[in-house]
Design goal:
This protein is an alpha/beta fold. 37% of the residues lie in helices and 17% in strands. It binds 2-phosphoglycolic acid.
Length: 252
Protein backbone atom coordinates (compact mmCIF):
# COMPACT_ATOMS: atom_id res chain seq x y z
CA UNK A 1 0.00 0.00 0.00
CA UNK A 2 1.35 3.46 -0.88
CA UNK A 3 2.10 5.84 1.93
CA UNK A 4 -0.22 8.52 0.57
CA UNK A 5 -3.39 8.63 -1.48
CA UNK A 6 -4.74 11.56 -3.48
CA UNK A 7 -8.22 11.31 -4.91
CA UNK A 8 -9.46 13.63 -7.64
CA UNK A 9 -13.20 14.14 -7.39
CA UNK A 10 -14.19 15.56 -10.75
CA UNK A 11 -17.79 16.05 -9.59
CA UNK A 12 -19.99 16.96 -12.61
CA UNK A 13 -17.01 17.82 -14.82
CA UNK A 14 -15.81 18.11 -17.55
CA UNK A 15 -18.37 18.84 -20.25
CA UNK A 16 -17.39 16.26 -22.84
CA UNK A 17 -15.97 12.78 -22.96
CA UNK A 18 -13.02 13.89 -25.05
CA UNK A 19 -12.02 16.40 -22.37
CA UNK A 20 -12.40 13.66 -19.77
CA UNK A 21 -10.20 11.32 -21.79
CA UNK A 22 -7.53 13.99 -22.12
CA UNK A 23 -7.54 14.74 -18.41
CA UNK A 24 -7.34 11.07 -17.49
CA UNK A 25 -4.44 10.58 -19.91
CA UNK A 26 -2.57 13.51 -18.35
CA UNK A 27 -3.13 12.25 -14.81
CA UNK A 28 -2.03 8.80 -15.88
CA UNK A 29 1.22 10.32 -17.15
CA UNK A 30 1.69 12.24 -13.91
CA UNK A 31 1.20 9.11 -11.85
CA UNK A 32 4.06 7.20 -13.47
CA UNK A 33 6.82 9.02 -11.60
CA UNK A 34 5.16 8.86 -8.18
CA UNK A 35 7.06 6.90 -5.58
CA UNK A 36 4.91 6.78 -2.49
CA UNK A 37 1.57 8.13 -3.63
CA UNK A 38 -1.43 6.41 -5.13
CA UNK A 39 -3.73 8.51 -7.30
CA UNK A 40 -7.42 7.84 -7.71
CA UNK A 41 -9.44 9.59 -10.37
CA UNK A 42 -13.20 9.74 -9.83
CA UNK A 43 -14.97 10.95 -12.97
CA UNK A 44 -18.75 11.10 -13.46
CA UNK A 45 -20.20 7.67 -14.35
CA UNK A 46 -20.60 8.60 -18.01
CA UNK A 47 -16.90 9.25 -18.35
CA UNK A 48 -15.64 6.06 -16.71
CA UNK A 49 -13.31 4.55 -19.31
CA UNK A 50 -14.42 1.25 -20.84
CA UNK A 51 -10.99 -0.24 -20.56
CA UNK A 52 -9.11 0.87 -17.52
CA UNK A 53 -5.86 -0.67 -16.50
CA UNK A 54 -5.24 -0.23 -12.83
CA UNK A 55 -1.61 0.28 -11.95
CA UNK A 56 0.12 0.45 -8.60
CA UNK A 57 -0.06 4.22 -8.84
CA UNK A 58 -3.36 4.91 -10.59
CA UNK A 59 -6.80 3.66 -9.69
CA UNK A 60 -10.29 4.46 -10.84
CA UNK A 61 -12.92 5.80 -8.50
CA UNK A 62 -16.63 6.56 -8.62
CA UNK A 63 -18.52 9.36 -6.89
CA UNK A 64 -21.28 7.15 -5.50
CA UNK A 65 -22.61 3.61 -5.71
CA UNK A 66 -25.93 2.01 -4.94
CA UNK A 67 -26.55 -1.18 -3.06
CA UNK A 68 -27.79 -4.29 -4.82
CA UNK A 69 -26.06 -5.93 -7.79
CA UNK A 70 -28.78 -5.47 -10.40
CA UNK A 71 -32.45 -4.63 -10.07
CA UNK A 72 -35.26 -2.12 -10.23
CA UNK A 73 -33.47 1.06 -9.11
CA UNK A 74 -33.96 3.73 -11.74
CA UNK A 75 -31.03 6.06 -12.17
CA UNK A 76 -28.73 4.19 -9.83
CA UNK A 77 -25.47 2.36 -10.52
CA UNK A 78 -24.33 -0.48 -8.30
CA UNK A 79 -20.92 -1.09 -6.83
CA UNK A 80 -20.83 -4.41 -8.63
CA UNK A 81 -21.40 -2.73 -12.00
CA UNK A 82 -18.64 -0.25 -11.17
CA UNK A 83 -16.30 -3.02 -10.14
CA UNK A 84 -16.77 -4.68 -13.53
CA UNK A 85 -15.55 -1.44 -15.13
CA UNK A 86 -12.37 -1.44 -13.11
CA UNK A 87 -13.45 0.91 -10.34
CA UNK A 88 -11.72 0.23 -7.04
CA UNK A 89 -12.66 3.22 -4.86
CA UNK A 90 -16.08 4.73 -4.23
CA UNK A 91 -16.68 8.14 -2.68
CA UNK A 92 -19.72 7.99 -0.41
CA UNK A 93 -21.66 10.59 1.51
CA UNK A 94 -20.07 13.60 -0.11
CA UNK A 95 -21.57 16.76 1.38
CA UNK A 96 -23.02 17.73 -2.00
CA UNK A 97 -24.98 14.46 -1.97
CA UNK A 98 -25.91 14.81 1.68
CA UNK A 99 -27.28 18.27 0.82
CA UNK A 100 -29.64 16.53 -1.63
CA UNK A 101 -30.98 14.25 1.08
CA UNK A 102 -28.47 11.42 1.43
CA UNK A 103 -28.58 10.28 5.05
CA UNK A 104 -26.03 8.58 7.27
CA UNK A 105 -28.16 5.43 7.05
CA UNK A 106 -27.96 5.46 3.24
CA UNK A 107 -24.21 6.02 3.39
CA UNK A 108 -23.86 3.07 5.76
CA UNK A 109 -25.90 0.82 3.49
CA UNK A 110 -23.86 1.85 0.45
CA UNK A 111 -20.59 1.37 2.34
CA UNK A 112 -21.67 -2.12 3.28
CA UNK A 113 -22.38 -2.96 -0.39
CA UNK A 114 -19.10 -1.44 -1.55
CA UNK A 115 -17.12 -3.47 0.99
CA UNK A 116 -18.99 -6.65 0.11
CA UNK A 117 -17.89 -6.17 -3.49
CA UNK A 118 -14.31 -5.74 -2.25
CA UNK A 119 -14.09 -2.08 -3.20
CA UNK A 120 -12.78 0.70 -0.99
CA UNK A 121 -15.33 3.17 0.35
CA UNK A 122 -14.14 6.72 0.83
CA UNK A 123 -16.61 8.00 3.38
CA UNK A 124 -16.95 11.76 3.60
CA UNK A 125 -17.72 13.39 6.92
CA UNK A 126 -17.49 16.94 8.16
CA UNK A 127 -19.31 19.64 9.99
CA UNK A 128 -21.38 22.31 8.27
CA UNK A 129 -20.30 25.03 10.65
CA UNK A 130 -18.63 25.48 13.99
CA UNK A 131 -20.14 26.75 17.20
CA UNK A 132 -18.38 28.16 20.22
CA UNK A 133 -19.49 25.31 22.48
CA UNK A 134 -17.99 22.54 20.37
CA UNK A 135 -21.39 21.02 19.65
CA UNK A 136 -20.13 20.36 16.13
CA UNK A 137 -17.76 17.74 17.50
CA UNK A 138 -20.65 15.75 18.95
CA UNK A 139 -22.47 15.98 15.63
CA UNK A 140 -19.37 14.88 13.76
CA UNK A 141 -18.89 11.87 16.06
CA UNK A 142 -22.51 10.86 15.42
CA UNK A 143 -22.10 11.31 11.69
CA UNK A 144 -19.06 9.05 11.76
CA UNK A 145 -20.61 6.28 13.83
CA UNK A 146 -23.91 6.38 11.91
CA UNK A 147 -22.19 6.40 8.50
CA UNK A 148 -20.10 3.39 9.56
CA UNK A 149 -22.99 1.57 11.21
CA UNK A 150 -22.85 -2.10 10.41
CA UNK A 151 -19.26 -2.13 9.19
CA UNK A 152 -17.51 -4.99 10.94
CA UNK A 153 -14.20 -4.72 12.67
CA UNK A 154 -12.59 -7.03 10.12
CA UNK A 155 -13.54 -4.70 7.24
CA UNK A 156 -12.94 -1.30 8.73
CA UNK A 157 -9.23 -1.10 7.83
CA UNK A 158 -10.32 -0.98 4.17
CA UNK A 159 -12.33 2.18 4.74
CA UNK A 160 -10.93 5.62 4.05
CA UNK A 161 -12.40 8.54 5.98
CA UNK A 162 -12.36 11.86 4.15
CA UNK A 163 -12.69 14.74 6.57
CA UNK A 164 -14.29 17.59 4.66
CA UNK A 165 -15.60 20.51 6.69
CA UNK A 166 -18.30 22.09 4.55
CA UNK A 167 -17.15 25.62 5.27
CA UNK A 168 -13.81 24.89 3.60
CA UNK A 169 -15.16 23.25 0.42
CA UNK A 170 -15.62 24.71 -3.02
CA UNK A 171 -15.51 28.19 -4.43
CA UNK A 172 -17.94 29.50 -1.82
CA UNK A 173 -15.77 28.37 1.10
CA UNK A 174 -15.97 30.73 4.04
CA UNK A 175 -12.82 29.57 5.78
CA UNK A 176 -9.56 27.70 5.47
CA UNK A 177 -8.21 25.07 7.78
CA UNK A 178 -4.58 25.24 8.82
CA UNK A 179 -2.41 22.23 9.56
CA UNK A 180 -2.76 22.67 13.32
CA UNK A 181 -6.56 22.74 13.08
CA UNK A 182 -6.51 19.73 10.78
CA UNK A 183 -4.23 17.81 13.12
CA UNK A 184 -6.64 18.40 16.00
CA UNK A 185 -9.57 17.18 13.93
CA UNK A 186 -7.79 14.01 12.82
CA UNK A 187 -7.03 13.21 16.43
CA UNK A 188 -10.68 13.68 17.28
CA UNK A 189 -11.71 11.41 14.40
CA UNK A 190 -9.16 8.78 15.47
CA UNK A 191 -10.54 8.89 19.00
CA UNK A 192 -14.06 8.43 17.68
CA UNK A 193 -12.91 5.47 15.59
CA UNK A 194 -11.06 4.03 18.59
CA UNK A 195 -14.25 4.12 20.64
CA UNK A 196 -16.01 2.23 17.87
CA UNK A 197 -13.37 -0.31 16.87
CA UNK A 198 -10.58 -0.31 19.43
CA UNK A 199 -7.18 1.31 19.18
CA UNK A 200 -5.34 -1.25 17.10
CA UNK A 201 -7.88 -1.45 14.31
CA UNK A 202 -8.70 2.26 14.40
CA UNK A 203 -5.05 3.17 13.88
CA UNK A 204 -5.15 1.39 10.51
CA UNK A 205 -7.98 3.50 9.11
CA UNK A 206 -6.71 6.08 6.68
CA UNK A 207 -7.89 9.64 7.17
CA UNK A 208 -7.59 12.09 4.30
CA UNK A 209 -8.61 15.73 4.02
CA UNK A 210 -10.68 17.61 1.47
CA UNK A 211 -11.60 21.26 1.14
CA UNK A 212 -9.88 23.73 -1.21
CA UNK A 213 -6.66 21.72 -1.37
CA UNK A 214 -4.31 23.19 -3.95
CA UNK A 215 -0.64 23.71 -4.63
CA UNK A 216 -0.39 26.42 -1.99
CA UNK A 217 -2.20 24.67 0.88
CA UNK A 218 -1.07 21.09 0.25
CA UNK A 219 2.54 21.30 1.51
CA UNK A 220 1.78 22.33 5.09
CA UNK A 221 -1.36 20.20 5.36
CA UNK A 222 0.43 17.02 4.29
CA UNK A 223 3.48 17.63 6.45
CA UNK A 224 1.73 18.65 9.64
CA UNK A 225 -1.93 17.84 9.23
CA UNK A 226 -1.66 14.17 10.27
CA UNK A 227 -3.45 12.95 7.14
CA UNK A 228 -2.52 10.26 4.63
CA UNK A 229 -3.70 12.22 1.64
CA UNK A 230 -6.31 14.46 0.07
CA UNK A 231 -9.67 14.46 -1.64
CA UNK A 232 -9.37 17.19 -4.23
CA UNK A 233 -12.19 18.91 -6.09
CA UNK A 234 -11.45 21.94 -8.26
CA UNK A 235 -7.70 21.48 -8.39
CA UNK A 236 -8.14 17.97 -9.81
CA UNK A 237 -9.64 19.40 -13.01
CA UNK A 238 -6.40 20.56 -14.58
CA UNK A 239 -3.31 18.44 -14.92
CA UNK A 240 -1.12 21.37 -13.90
CA UNK A 241 -2.86 22.03 -10.56
CA UNK A 242 -3.35 18.36 -9.76
CA UNK A 243 0.24 17.61 -10.71
CA UNK A 244 1.47 20.22 -8.25
CA UNK A 245 -0.45 18.56 -5.41
CA UNK A 246 0.77 15.10 -6.37
CA UNK A 247 4.37 16.27 -6.43
CA UNK A 248 4.01 17.97 -3.06
CA UNK A 249 2.52 14.89 -1.45
CA UNK A 250 5.00 12.52 -3.03
CA UNK A 251 7.96 14.50 -1.75
CA UNK A 252 6.54 15.19 1.72
P1 LIG B 1 -12.70 21.53 -3.48
O1 LIG B 1 -13.70 20.31 -3.29
O2 LIG B 1 -11.31 20.96 -3.52
O3 LIG B 1 -13.09 22.16 -4.77
O4 LIG B 1 -12.90 22.45 -2.31
C1 LIG B 1 -13.40 19.27 -2.41
C2 LIG B 1 -14.53 18.29 -2.33
O5 LIG B 1 -15.69 18.71 -2.36
O6 LIG B 1 -14.31 17.07 -2.25
Amino acid sequence: MSKYIVIGNWKMNPETSSLAEKLLASVSKLSVSLKKTEVVVAPPYVFLPKKFKKTKKLSLGAQDAFWGGVGASTGEVSSLQLKKLGVSHVILGHSERRALGETDAMVAKKADAVLRDSLIPVICVGEKERDAHGEYLTLLAHQISDSLAGIQKRDIANVIIAYEPLWAIGKNATGVIDSHGLHQMTIFIQKTLTTLYGREVASKIRIIYGGSVDGSTAPELIRQGNVTGFLVGRASLTAKDFGEILKTVDTA
